[in-house]
């Protein structure tokens, strides 16, 4: 027989306390918590709209500078290509590589007169000419879209439109839940449509006669 191990009595015990007030608040506060969640969702949508509007303003602000740099880069690249083609006197081979986004042409040049320019000694070098794809030109044309003509026109994107639509849908559903009320607060009687019976006509004429008296 081995020695009996003494069990350690845990000093910290968990106690369950039943609070009637918290229970009542939980059971009667479903609508209150639903309104709080709805309010938090609306505030979150408004905050996202503000962030998207700020981003659009920054893009519009820096768009002319980006367009200017793109045009300068394209002009410089075209001038360099024209200068290289002018200096080339003999070509030995030309290899064309097609890529999904652009086209690369590698031309091996045997005779290139760069002594007058003072750049490189004559020899065999490779000239790489990049040609942009038509899809990139279309995307660049889309990127260089004109800015809004009027200062008061809002800057809207797909993200802002979707968030605004969600916000309006929430407010519209909230307003549609309330039934329309009449001016005097009483329900208007529903008049029967179609053909009426003889007894119904007598009741209606009797009511009008009493009202006239």
From TrEMBL:
Annotated keywords: Coiled coil, Nucleus, RNA-binding, rRNA-binding
Chain residue ranges for the region called Disordered: 164-213
One annotated Gene Ontology cellular component of this protein: nucleolus
Ranges of compositional bias, category Basic residues: 167-180
A Pfam family per the record: Nop25
Coiled coil: 32-59
The UniProt record lists the keyword DNA damage: no
GO MF annotations, alphabetized: rRNA binding
Localization terms from the record: Nucleus, Nucleolus
Main location: nucleus
Family membership: Belongs to the RRP17 family.
Protein name: Nucleolar protein 12
Organism of this sequence: Pyxicephalus adspersus (African bullfrog)
